[in-house]
Write a structure and sequence with these properties.
The complex is a heterodimer of chains A (287) and B (610). Helix content of chain A is 32%, strand content 3%. Chain A is mainly alpha-helical. In chain A, the strands form two sheets. Chain A has a two-stranded antiparallel ribbon with strand order 1-3. A two-stranded antiparallel ribbon of chain A has the order 2-5. Chain B is mainly β and 610 residues long. Among the domains of chain B are: 118-139 and 158-177 and 192-347, no CATH class; 356-453, no CATH class. The two termini of chain B are 27 Å apart. The relative contact order of chain B is 0.08. The chains are: A mainly alpha (287), B mainly beta (610).
């Protein structure tokens, strides 16, 4: 086998081209409707500093034609993003944001959660209410997730946890909140989400640990948090390994049948099988 | 990195100088921290790792020119935190012209320390491997990300991202050699670089996305003996005078993705995506050994080899949805993915090779019925068929494992719109695969949640989930129960958040381990009871004075015990517009097995505002 990887990325050129490109493109701004602001001043004022307002997107682009509302003011005559079904609310967003966020098909939409439940279009909707264990101290976007996913957020309070909110680690580092509902698992023969930061244990290896490719990282690790070291599902490494490895060479329980077992539940298997995630040199993952 | 920092600083200086009538907010906070630590310093570094000294606690700059004032900028945000030696450092830049372009840069650095023992230090035995963890880590992860998004027109979006990730520092590991264990140094030296290019084009009823990503990872793996050693058992003959294992590896990967979203009408949408990823790994290895084995004979002096691995992934996803009526929607999805990997090693002219292939086909169906605005009922079913062909050595016959997984979900929600929210769900999945041992072959979960939000800012919720997982083949069972209660209240001057999470977990497994002619029964019976209580409050005493605090209580008992109390108090005073002072106190009281610490941190911060 002969492979000579030759990918060379021109980092400096990429950087300067990126900055230059930033200065080249722009779109003209469009004015917002002053008629809406006459009655909805706080909303219009808050919107002015937000992306939609800065882009000059008209109120009617999201809320629909206001003629009926002008004739008969009230919630019933306009899309107010409050009482309507989630699918109806999100459809208004999907008109522009369908590509990156097919929200009408994702897991949240399936649960009846509209885009506006997480995204504060007018800014003033943000609220610390229903805050989860760490929502008050978590940065966005994880704080938004924690408001509903209290159980998952609580797992990060374990002594061993995945440093959520620090060093750039967010819920969205691993989970795509806009992914389709039926993609239930992160694992699909390879754990892309884990591999992006933990390349050293993701392989490929000449000798793979079977659990990695059949069951994924989650077979041994509780990725949000765990009371056990290294985010393991079971504290004793031996107990975890024996879950699958019910057969072992004789010396794993002592050389002499009369002697007590040399290895027990409190054995740290990884003190010998150090390359537990995979090895390029040793089939028994010893180095 | 230096070029980029210089460019950013120059741009900021220019903006600040020209910011007479524009909206510019900047603040810098410098803090001095003192630490009083009683207990295990290694454990403290592992969990908190904040130390005494002067720090740039935080800095931020936000600049927004007036509407239409700038043809290239609508909003600029720059922030930094933890600079000057804290374990988590962060620099961010976000430059946006809405609807035109966005440039984001993020630099993070995180220290990772692990120096743990989890059994009585007096009982630790390397020869029996009975509890001490001889792996230690002390390294940094540095991550630089630059993303550029440009919209040349309303229909076209271009994406460019570059990424650099570095891991470097120290670690220790263990070498098992001739019935002995030796502690080795294993420096960490890994670099990953990635480039991402994407194009998105939108028609009235369709969106096409093309993504390409390249990545290169270099990892210089080295394990070496610091000094001659007799190993964990000095009475045994095995001795090591010198040892060095070098393994320089590099891999390249390329990932291509094409996605098409089509909306033939208001009621239909179909999304198809093809992903192709290729990885190629190359490595050279060299091992030199100087010592004697358990019989007193010289160990093999050296070995040399090289090898590599190729991994190919091809995945197709198709998903479609249709709203049959205004109240009923159906979805269906299909996934077909294949992972192929072959690898070889030539060590001292001896060849070994492995290969495996995984083919997965997944089907899903879901329906949602909304008879009224308040009620919704959703049901989903999915089926996953996985075929694994695995050959673990050139001399071994391939093994074939079939995994069939089926699952369903039913969820009922009631939201009448008056602040009340009720949700009930039940799900079950089962895996039919004799090789799946660590994962559950049967999983059942019931969840119920109830919430109410009052108009005066008060919010309360309770959720309870019961999950049962078992594996009939591996003979184990776990049951977990989690109850979460939350209360929140916010007014203009006061906010309060409080909650309790009670987690109960039982693991019950009888494992009979067969080793040669011996059979040993290990009874694995673990319990964990984790109670988490937290409260946080913020009070605005006056327009210039704020008091805030939080307290978190964590108790885990059962088979293993861990306890942590984390209390914080902060008084922030802003005597004049351009100056802020803050005094923070934090206490972390931690105990776990044989390790415990009690840390008191006091920090004084001076914040300059513009």
């Amino acid at each position: 086998m002969c492979r000579k990887p030759e990918t060379k990325i021109p980092w400096r050129q990429v950087l300067w081209v990126s900055m230059l490109a930033c200065s080249v493109w722009s779109l003209p701004l469009r004015a917002n409707e002053p008629m809406c602001a006459a009655c909805h001043a706080p909303a219009a004022q808050a919107l002015a500093s937000q992306p939609h307002g800065r882009m000059g997107i008209a109120c009617t682009a999201c809320h629909g034609d206001g003629q009926q509302h002008l004739a008969a003011p009230g919630k019933a005559s306009i899309l107010g993003f409050s009482d309507e079904p989630a699918s109806e609310q999100s459809a208004a967003c999907a008109g522009c944001h369908a590509a990156a966020h097919p929200a009408d098909a994702d897991a949240h939409a399936a649960a009846g959660i509209a885009c506006t439940a997480c995204h504060a279009i007018h800014a003033e909707k943000k609220s610390p209410l229903n805050a989860s264990v760490d929502a008050a101290t978590l940065p966005e976007p994880s704080a938004t997730c924690a408001r509903c996913h209290a159980a998952a957020a609580a797992q990060f309070a374990h002594t061993e946890n995945h440093v959520l909110g620090r060093a750039g680690v967010q819920c969205t580092s691993c989970h795509d909140p806009h992914a389709a509902a039926v993609r239930t698992g992160l694992h699909d023969g390879f754990d892309t989400q884990c591999e992006s930061c933990h390349a050293e244990v993701a392989g490929p290896f000449v000798y793979e640990h079977g659990a990695v490719r059949v069951e994924g990282c989650g077979a041994c690790h509780a990725s949000h948090g765990s009371p056990n070291r290294h985010l393991l599902n079971v504290q004793e490494v031996g107990a975890l390994c024996y879950t699958c490895h019910a057969e072992a060479p004789q010396f794993h329980v002592g050389f002499s049948p009369a002697a007590p077992p040399r290895f027990g539940l409190d054995t740290v298997c990884t003190n010998c099988h150090v390359a537990v995630h995979g090895s390029n040199l040793d089939r028994l993952l010893l180095k | 990195m230096r070029l980029f920092a210089a460019a950013v600083l120059s741009a900021l200086a220019g903006l600040a100088a020209a910011a007479d009538d524009r909206d510019l907010h900047a603040d810098v906070e410098i803090g001095y921290r003192t630490l009083s630590l009683d207990g295990d310093a290694g454990k403290y570094d592992q969990h908190v790792n904040l130390h005494s000294g002067l720090r740039l606690t935080g800095a931020s700059l936000r600049y927004t020119p007036g509407a239409g004032d700038s043809w290239w900028l609508d909003e600029l945000d720059v922030s930094a935190a933890g600079l000057g030696g804290d374990p988590f450092q962060d620099i961010r830049l976000d430059l946006r012209k809405f609807g035109s372009h966005r440039l984001r840069y993020q630099h993070t650095r995180a220290d990772y320390v692990y120096a743990d023992v989890f059994t009585d230090p007096g009982a630790v035995s390397a020869s029996a491997s009975n509890g001490g963890d001889f792996h230690h880590f002390d390294y940094q992860r540095t991550h630089d990300q630059l993303d550029l998004e440009v919209r040349p027109g309303e229909r076209l979006r271009l994406l460019l991202g570059v990424d650099r990730y570095r891991r470097d520092g120290d670690s220790t590991t263990v070498l098992d050699l001739s019935r002995e264990e030796f502690h080795l140094d294993k420096p960490v030296d890994e670099t990953s670089r990635a480039l991402h290019v994407g194009v998105e084009y939108r028609w009235d009823a369709a969106v096409l996305t093309l993504d390409q990503r390249w990545r290169r990872v270099d990892n210089d793996v080295r394990m070496q003996l610091a000094e001659p050693s007799e190993g964990s058992d000095p009475a045994a003959l095995t001795r090591l005078d010198d040892y060095l294992l070098r393994q320089d590896l590099a891999y390249d990967s390329r990932e291509s993705r094409v996605a098409l979203l089509v909306r033939p009408g208001k009621r239909w949408d179909v999304r198809a995506e093809i992903l192709r990823a290729e990885m190629a790994l190359d490595f050279d290895t060299r091992e030199t050994t100087d010592g004697v084995d358990f019989a007193g004979q010289p160990l093999p002096v050296s070995s040399r080899g090289d090898g590599g691995a190729d991994r190919d992934i091809l995945r197709l996803d198709v998903r479609g949805g249709v709203a049959l009526t205004d109240t009923l929607r159906l979805e269906a999805s299909v996934r077909d993915s294949q992972v192929d990997q072959d690898a070889d090693l030539v060590l001292d002219a001896a060849l070994d090779a492995t290969d495996w292939r995984t083919r997965t086909r997944r089907f899903g169906l879901a329906g949602e019925w909304r008879p009224s605005r308040a009620w919704s009922l959703r049901a989903a079913w999915n089926s996953d068929r996985r075929r694994v062909r695995d050959r673990q050595s050139v001399t071994a016959l391939p093994a074939r494992v079939n995994t069939d997984e089926d699952g369903f979900l039913v969820a009922l929600a009631y939201r009448p719109g008056n602040g009340l929210s009720v949700r009930l769900s039940a799900e079950r999945s089962s895996i039919d695969d004799p090789f799946v041992l660590a994962s559950a072959t049967d999983r059942r979960r019931l969840k119920a949640s109830l919430g109410y939000r009052w108009s005066n800012g008060l919010d309360a919720s309770i959720a309870h989930a019961v999950t049962q997982r078992d594996n009939a083949d591996a003979d184990w069972e776990t049951r977990s129960r989690q109850t979460t209660l939350r209360l929140g209240w916010a007014t203009n001057r006061f906010s309060l958040g409080a909650g309790a999470t009670l987690i109960g977990l039982d693991v019950d497994a009888d494992r009979r381990v067969t080793a040669g002619s011996r059979r040993v029964l290990f009874l694995i019976d673990e319990e964990a009871r984790a109670d988490l209580y937290d409260v946080s409050a913020r009070l605005r005493l006056s327009p210039a004075l704020n008091l805030s605090g939080s307290y978190r209580f964590y108790d885990n008992d059962g088979t293993r015990e861990a306890r942590r109390r984390d209390g914080r108090l902060e008084l922030a005073w802003k005597p004049v517009d351009a100056l802020g002072l803050s005094l923070r106190y934090r206490n972390v009281d931690f105990s776990e097995d044989f390790e415990r610490f009690d840390a008191h941190l006091v920090e004084l911060g001076v914040r300059f505002l513009y």
